[in-house]
Amino acid sequence: MSADDAATLTNVLSLYREIPRGEWARLAAGLAQPLTETEIVQLRGLGDRLDMAEVAQVYVPLSRLLSLYAESTKRLGVDTADFLGEHDTTTPFIVGVAGSVAVGKSTIARLLRELTSRWPGTPRVELVTTDGFLYPNAELERRGLMERKGFPESYDRRALVAFLTEVKSGAAEVRAPYYSHMRYDIVPDAVVTVRRPDIVIVEGLNVLQPPPTPNDVAVGDLFDFSIYVDADAGHIAQWYVDRFLALRRGTFSNPNSFFNVFAELSDEQAVERAMHYWNTINLPNLEENVLPTRHRASLVLQKAADHTVETVWLRKL
Predict the structure, then answer these.
(1) Backbone region of residue 170 per phi and psi (left: phi > 0; alpha: psi in -120 to 50; beta: other values)
(2) What is the rounded CA–CA span in Å between residue 41 and residue 49?
């Protein structure tokens, strides 16, 4: 890292409160643990080591913090409507969750959906992943982008912005395309329907990307709060390989899976293939597109090698 880069990073980090794991965990004192061990196991993704202690010490306080932000935003909406002499038009509170492939952001998004749906007054929580806004494989092939699936240019950004704009505007019903990980493609005529929930959680690699031009709206412009899930690239690479091996024994063995061709690979061949994908696709995307957006997040969860959160960075108000 150059001296200029180090100075820039220092300036960016000054915008955040750095909260070590022990201090953050103490915030859980007096907060109820709303999930059972069975529910946590069901929410856990492949390779994630999520347990009762991690939920209680990290994610229950995070859920409480989110509730404070949501309540404050709602109050501001009501006060603004009163000031203007209008009826309350408060719209859904939108939370973005960003981070690398295999860093555990999908598990965190599912967990936050369960936790936030148990707050008083916010029973309707929807989770939307940006996978649904990937271009269909046929279109990616036409554009020569199949080897760059997950890079910003592989998404229909305008459709995602339009979807979230409708949600944030308070539309009664908004539909998003449905993506099948089994088929590795958008499913024609299948949709995810969002019906004016209290909270919407949007999870994806590139949700904190800046707009392509100054006149465009960024996806993150529509968020009320955003979370970046961070870890050392070496740790993420190992998690990616571990997940690939687990999928080879599970989902990949399904004859209907797009990745069924990998089911018969030996362990050595599977590791080699996973590292090829990591080094040629996922690591470049992380370094070029995903990691540079970390400073745009309201909160950063810094993970250790064992997937536990060791530090929380909270943006100063």
Answers:
(1) left
(2) 9
